[in-house]
Request: fold
Amino acid sequence: MMDEMKIGTKIMRGMVSKVISKVLKKKLGYNVGIQLNEFDAKVNDGKAHVHLNIDAEMTQEELNKILEAIGL
Reply:
């Protein structure tokens, strides 16, 4: 069985982008502007394949905090 989900409309992508930005700020403390351009998810035989195309805007300080947090 294969399940598929796409977020394609501009309105939905905008709403999801705002939610992601707010969650990043609230949960992780990162002030990042997110623009979701494309989201596709497919589940086939218990394995999920997710494709994201996003643009993110942040200060260099925020980028450095994120890179440090993941060990880079």
Residues 10-28 form the longest helix (19 residues). The CA atoms of residues 21 and 60 lie 17 Å apart. The beta strands are 2-7, 33-44, 47-57.
